[in-house]
Design a protein that fits this description.
The chain is mostly helical. 84% of the residues lie in helices and 0% in strands. It contains 5 helices and no strands.
Length: 144
């Protein structure tokens, strides 16, 4: 039996992850380019593209048959990072005008983003928001 996951949950996860991810991108881009405005441009450009990519990634993972476990979170982290890094490389290249800057920023954030994403997933795994069946099960256990 699969649990019902609301669209509100995916939207909330999208927003919280984008805040964390954007701050990370801005800081890394600033450090790598030496220009805070380039960091801001890259980080803010990613807000739109990454929110759309993240939302669809979440919707696809609802249908994936890997149970709720650390293994699922690790695989989900890797697939998200693949698409997220491609997006960062492309946007950084376009904004900076230098393909090597795009590659530097993209590869620098692979490690930071994978760690941040993994902990974001673990945190959301513990939150009941948008999970009707898990809420009911916990509520039932408390009243029994």
């Amino acid at each position: 039996m699969t649990k019902k996951v609301s669209y509100k949950r995916h939207l909330a996860k999208t927003i919280t992850w984008r805040i964390v991810g954007t701050l990370d991108t801005i800081i890394l881009s600033w450090v790598i380019t030496g220009n805070p405005f380039t960091g801001l441009k890259i980080g803010l450009a990613e807000v739109v593209t990454k929110m759309a990519l993240y939302y669809f990634h979440e919707r696809i993972w609802v249908k994936v048959g890997i149970g709720d476990s650390r293994k699922r979170h690790v695989i989900k982290t890797i697939t998200w990072r693949f698409f997220g890094t491609l997006d960062t490389i492309m946007l950084s290249w376009i904004i900076s005008g230098d393909p090597f800057t795009g590659l530097k920023i993209g590869f620098a954030e692979v490690i930071t983003k994978m760690l941040l994403y993994y902990f974001h997933e673990r945190t959301w795994y513990k939150i009941n928001y948008g999970l009707d069946k898990r809420k009911r099960a916990k509520k039932w256990r408390r009243t029994s």
